[in-house]
Amino acid sequence: MLSTTELQGLVKPDRVHRRLYQDPEIFELEMERIFGRAWLYVGHESQVPEKGDFITIDLARQPVVMVRDRADGEVHVLYNRCGHRGAVVCNQPCGNVRLFRCCYHGWSFKTSGKLAAVPLEAGYGEDFDKTDPQFGMVPLPRVANYGGFIFASLSDSGPDLKTYLGPMLRTIDDILNLAPDGEVQVSGGVHRYVFDGNWKAQVENINDLYHPPFSHASTTKEDGRQFQRQGSNTGAQLTDEDGNPISFWDETGIRAFDNGHGYCGKLPDSGSGSGPVFEAYLKALEGRHGPERAKEVLDVPWHNAIFYPNLCIQSMAQHIRVIRPISVDRTEVNVYPILLKGAPQEYNQQIIRYLNITHAPASLIQTDDLEAFRRIQSGLKTQGAEWVMLARYFGKDVPTDEGQKGMGTSELEMRNQYKAWADYMTQPQPRSNSHAS
Amino acid sequence: MQASTYTANQPVVENLDHERIQKFVYHESRLLDERRFEEWIELFDDDATYWVPAQIDQQSPLNQLSIFYDDKELMQTRIARLRHERIHVDDPQTRSVRMLSNLEIESAEPGAGYDLRARAVLCAIVFFQQKQYIYGGRCEYQLRDRNNALSIYCKRVNLINCDSAFHPLVVPF
Hints:
A: alpha+beta, 9-stranded antiparallel β-sheet, 4-stranded antiparallel β-sheet, 13 helices, globular, disordered C terminus, B: alpha+beta, Nuclear Transport Factor 2, Chain: A, 6-stranded mixed β-sheet, 3 helices, dioxygenase (chain B), Rng_hydr_dOase-bsu (chain B), NTF2-like_dom_sf (chain B)
């Protein structure tokens, strides 16, 4: 097994060792020490609106079910495993139940996870304690809800969710403020894709503002503008007419916080809009916030937010992105549109339409990045060089009250992720609630 | 576009020119195999849609995500990207061969906005980034037959694994 010193030696302030992407033993340790300890995003409570509603997902490679309790309406996150012989109990992606029932010997469970009934129970004798939690569907040690976003931790210790997320909570507030009714709805389906690459390649990519003009070259026309995006906005300008990246990528700026979190600044076209659908939405939003505040709310000051290690929220192609590591060289990603309660239906339909173009498995944008992740996985097999460079604008990052800020195309965000990675990976015990700077 | 209105008991109309329509959909399919995308698009009317739902029996392309939901303009953007020299995901070029079978044809009800419906079983074998993938599903065409020419008003492809996780999809089905 890799020692703490060996693990620490794989991460330097401006580079990481290629082994992080290639070694199955490191992957297993990541599942134990990062995914086994961090707060992980599970789902949004609007995915289980009614009592008895459930969804099933994989969290850190383990099947779990998120369910709304029939009795008290609480949202639980349970291990999807029968308390008897261990079979997955709930085999549907979503649905509504009165009780969960195991297919094998018919044990049934309440939506709280508690064991409800055991067929021919007498066969277990008098010592059998049906209230022992291990015979139920065991709840995850910690579950917390912020603005309807449900997080869970596989560990029973560590900082609470709000402390863990810190300044990132603002980004959830910003998204909620975009909804004229103050709530969002995750009910527009999901894009599911896989790539033959390591999960960290996707996490690194989220706030990588260095890549768009190159990776997404195939979406730009000769004038450097991307195809038309949402509503009446024109396409984003990725490069100048000679194909050189333009300066806004740096001006956008990025922020890095404790625990590997961070976000990048807004893109130039954000916060604007026109046409009858946008006007109707604006009116609804003004109804909630008043005209002045509505304008501020629309001008979301960030574009992509990373909640390390498994969640991204994007404000422009408005979505929740969940990263699900499968193995050291295989990752699934799920993309859910964030729909705004109280917005005109057509406005939410634009969000869906746009997300098909940008993030479907057949999308015009994300597929080029997926190919880059696949090539990274392949390229890092080579033995010619040991290190992956993350040195862009290294040493130029500026400390802030909350963390650090850097130029838009800085690789600060990745350096910050690997700082958190090393913290997690080199601590044999769960981390304490400290505020490292 | 509405969800399919086919029912198992609906009789297949006998007096339609089966062979002519078969030739048309075979041709459409071969244009994709041969990456003759510009000719492929020409088969679609200006108000056409191309839809690959992301859910079984998906009712709406507007309120739920889809794998593809293209109008003609987006189809053109998509094709322009497929022709771009720096489309990394399609380098080297994706190859595909598809088989259409079990063709059934019926005439549309009056006022439907199109004239014929055709459905066929699709088996597509795709060679993408050194790996081979098999996709199976059912194609549903809404066709117009005007001035002695067939054209596509809507093509919907119902993949049997539409709600699973996909490797990147480059060439339309």
